[in-house]
Each structure stands twice: as C-alpha cells, then as structure tokens.
Write a structure and sequence with these properties.
Layout: H1 11-29, H2 33-44, H3 49-56, H4 60-79
C-alpha cells in the first residue's frame, strides 16, 4: 500500500479538526431543539424537507425556515469562535 504524505494527517491537522468538531458540537447546543433536529435530519441523515416535516409535524416551509435560521446561527457562532 502506497501512502502519500498528503494522505496522512499531521498531528496539528488532527487537533485542528478535533477542535472544529468540538466548536460545532457546542454551536449545535445553542440552536433551538427544532433547529438542531432539522439540521441533523437534513445533513446527517440526508432526509428531505418533506420527511423532516413529517417527523417534526411541521410544513416543508417551516422546516426550510428552521434549517435556514439554524444554519445562520451556526455560521455566526462558528465565525466568532
């Protein structure tokens, strides 16, 4: 097996990824429960807005709003971290 240097992560890069993951986890906790759930279902479970709406008992428009506002808050929180 031939590994290129770029295929192997340096310890500092691994630490940076771990810190960013920790920042994301903390930022997710600052969202409302509905925003957090909608984002998890959309981006971690690859569900459609309709599927998320069924699970959260909300319209697709409401789900889209939850995701939009949640992502705005995540960006703002992570940009200031």
């Amino acid at each position: 097996m031939n590994l290129l240097a770029s295929d192997v992560s340096s310890p500092s890069a691994a630490l940076h990824r771990h810190e960013r993951a920790d920042d994301l986890a903390k930022a997710m906790l600052r969202l409302t429960a509905d925003q957090r759930q909608a984002i998890i279902l959309k981006y971690w479970h690859n569900q459609t807005l309709a599927q998320i709406g069924e699970e959260l008992n909300k319209s697709t428009e409401a789900v889209a709003g939850l995701i939009f506002r949640g992502m705005q808050k995540l960006r703002s929180t992570l940009d200031s971290a």
